[in-house]
């Protein structure tokens, strides 16, 4: 039985070598204000406030957003919510990269003009003087690493940003390593937090990326810990797609996740979930949170019931044998090395 949100008491863990502590499960807000391919808004402002309230009630204090989420509405809603609270009690992370103005190539990427403008704009929407973590949402190969790190260091020195992070879809440890080496040589602020995609069926970061993070004591906060909902148990290989599901509105999701290989992984996930009297989502989150090198997964939800289910994963303990079975269900690309 899933506890109520105010019955959950999230713990905190060190955020790498930043000196900060983060909630063991971070709140992701990418669905706030998001319009689907079918033209539906996934989470409106009223629902967003309910989710923020619920996360707070469970002891959560780390909120992850980005300047493009909901076309900026996500940050505005978070800013309005924070305005009623003590800002210092919350860790806020945002991201910059994706193009925001049609026909303006300089409104995309990590060039100095774009980054400085975007940070000023997101601080205004959040109604705050600083963000705790500023991520580059993706890597921009057109902006030299030295130029990027000099720009980001200036934001830290100005007090607009406290720490730097890098988000990625594919492993790129060497790019982070190169940028951090430049920063160290110049006495600039390096990247200290990493945000890769990682879950039971998306295992690309296993190997060099996670090993690099462990060796350098970099925090790792994975996004999409439930495979965009695939690992929640709502999909069946032999049944039609639920009408209001992610899969029903996204052909890309169907191609990426609704595969025989991934459903085989889900069969093992269901078996372990039954053994520990938990839901598949909770079990998948517990597996991820316990991975060597993972600091705190970023969880999202459409409803407060889903949020409570996900956050309750913090109390689930898996045996070594169960962890090994889940891990072996879909070996990573570097398995055995």
UniProtKB/TrEMBL annotation:
Any one Gene Ontology cellular component term annotated for this protein: cytosol
Residues in coiled coil: none
UniProt xrefs under InterPro entries: AKR_Detox_Biosynth (IPR050523), NAD(P)_OxRdtase_dom_sf (IPR036812), NADP_OxRdtase_dom (IPR023210)
Transmembrane segments: none
Taxonomic placement: Archaea, Methanobacteriati, Methanobacteriota, Stenosarchaea group, Halobacteria
Protein name per Swiss-Prot or TrEMBL: Aldo/keto reductase
Cited Pfam families: Aldo_ket_red
One Gene Ontology MF term: oxidoreductase activity
UniProt keyword annotations, A-Z: Oxidoreductase
Span of domain NADP-dependent oxidoreductase: 24-329
Extent of the signal sequence: none
């Amino acid at each position: 039985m899933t506890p109520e949100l105010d019955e959950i008491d999230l713990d905190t863990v060190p955020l790498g070598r930043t000196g900060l502590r983060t909630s063991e499960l971070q709140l992701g807000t990418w669905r706030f204000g998001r319009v689907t391919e079918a033209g539906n808004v996934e989470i409106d402002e009223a629902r967003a406030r309910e989710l923020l309230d619920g996360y707070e009630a469970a002891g959560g204090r780390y909120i992850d957003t980005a300047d493009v989420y909901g076309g900026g509405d996500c940050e505005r809603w978070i800013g309005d919510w924070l305005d009623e609270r003590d800002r210092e009690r919350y860790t806020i992370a945002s991201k910059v990269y994706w193009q925001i103005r049609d026909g303006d190539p300089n409104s995309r990427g990590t060039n100095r003009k774009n980054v400085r403008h975007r940070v000023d704009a997101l601080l205004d929407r959040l109604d705050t003087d600083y963000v705790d973590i500023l991520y580059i949402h993706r890597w921009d190969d057109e902006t030299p690493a030295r130029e990027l790190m000099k720009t980001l260091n200036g934001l830290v020195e100005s007090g607009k940003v406290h720490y730097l992070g890098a988000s990625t879809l594919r492993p790129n440890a060497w790019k982070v390593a190169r940028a951090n080496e430049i920063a160290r040589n110049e006495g600039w602020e390096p990247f200290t937090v990493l945000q890769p995609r990682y879950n039971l069926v998306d295992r690309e970061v296993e190997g060099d990326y996670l090993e690099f993070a462990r060796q350098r004591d970099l925090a790792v906060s994975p996004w999409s810990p439930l495979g965009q909902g695939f690992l929640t148990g709502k999909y069946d290989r032999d049944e039609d797609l639920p009408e209001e599901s992610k899969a029903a509105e996204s052909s890309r999701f169907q191609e990426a996740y609704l595969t025989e290989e991934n459903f085989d992984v889900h069969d093992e996930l269901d078996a372990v979930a039954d053994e520990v009297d938990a839901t598949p989502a909770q079990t998948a989150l517990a597996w991820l949170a316990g991975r060597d090198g993972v600091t705190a997964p970023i969880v999202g939800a459409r409803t407060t019931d889903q949020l409570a289910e996900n956050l309750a994963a913090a109390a689930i303990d898996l045996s070594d044998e169960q962890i090994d079975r889940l891990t072996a269900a879909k070996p990573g690309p570097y398995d055995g090395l």
